[in-house]
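Re: that chain you flagged

S.,

Sorry for the slow reply, it's been a week of failed gels. I finally had a moment to sit down with the sequence you sent. For the record, here it is as I used it:
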Amino acid sequence: MDTPNRTQKKLTLMVLAAGIGSRYGGIKQIDGFGPNGETIMDYSLFDAIRSGFTKVVFIVRDEILDIVKEKFGPRLKGKVEVEYVVQTLDKLIPPQFKNPERAKPWGTGHAMLCAREVINEPFVVINADDFYGRDSFASIADFFSKDTTGAHAMVGYTLKNVLSEHGSVSRGVGATDKDGNLTSVVERTTIVVENGKIISKEKDGDLELSPEAPTSMNFWGFHPSIFPLTDSMFQDFLKNNHQNIKAEFFIPLIANGMIQQNKGKIKVLGGGNIWFGVTYKEDKEAVSARIKELIKKGQYPEKLW
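Prediction finished late last night. Pasting the C-alpha cells below so you have them in one place:
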C-alpha cells in the first residue's frame, strides 16, 4: 500500500454501518464482494489509509458490533487507530422524547453525534455500503491537509452518473455559489430518467433537474466544530418529530441548517469520479463485476490486506 506524504495531521474516517438494509435481505455492510470476500467497506478503508487517514470510527448497531470487530480489527491493526461506537435508539435522546414504538435508527446525523466523544479532529463521514473510489478520499484528505480550521467539505458527484437503470433513486441534489461552496442540498426522493431527461417526481408535479448538478452520496468532511450546532439542531428536531416513529435526522439537514444560519461553509470538492452501491440482493453481481474490473486495471491489488 502506498504511504502518503500528504499530511501527518490527524484525520478520521467515520463509517456509518448501523443501517438495517431491509431491502437487501442480509447484512450488506459485511457481505463479501471482492475476490477474497472483501466487503465494500474494505475498499473504502484501503483507500482512506493510502490517502493519509489516521483513525477509523465504526458506527454500528449492537447486533453487528462483534462481527465488525472480529472482521476489521485484525486488518487495521498497526495501520490506524480504531474506535467502535454503538448507535442505539435511546442514545442522546432525552426521556421526554423516547418513543417505545420506535424501531428505526434516528438517521445519519444522529449516528454522527453518537461518535462525538471519540472525535477531536477533522473527520469524514461515509456509508459502509457505498463504493466511492480512491480519488474521493485523496481529494478530501488534500482539503484537510491545508489550514482548514472550521472548514467543511462534500465530495460532489455528478447527478447523471449516480442514477439507476432499474428504477427511481433518492439523492441529495446540491447547488453551489460562484466560489464552489454549497448553497443548499435537497433530498429528492424519487428521481427517474424519462425521455432522456432527469426528472424529480414532486407532490406539485415533475421537476426537471440538471444532469450536471453536484450530488451528495453521503461523503462529507467536517471540522469538529460542527458538533455543538448538530446537537442543538437535533434537540429541535426531536421536539418536532419525536412522535413520528419513522422520522430521521439526516446529515443534509445539518448542512442546510449551517448554511442558512451562516454558521459555516461547505466546499464542494472534485473526486467523485466513481460510485456504486448495493440496495437489493440483485445488485451484488454487478458490484462484484465492477470491483473485478478495477483490480484488472491495477487500481486495487487482488488481495487487499
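What I noticed first: The radius of gyration is 19 Å.

Talk soon,
D.
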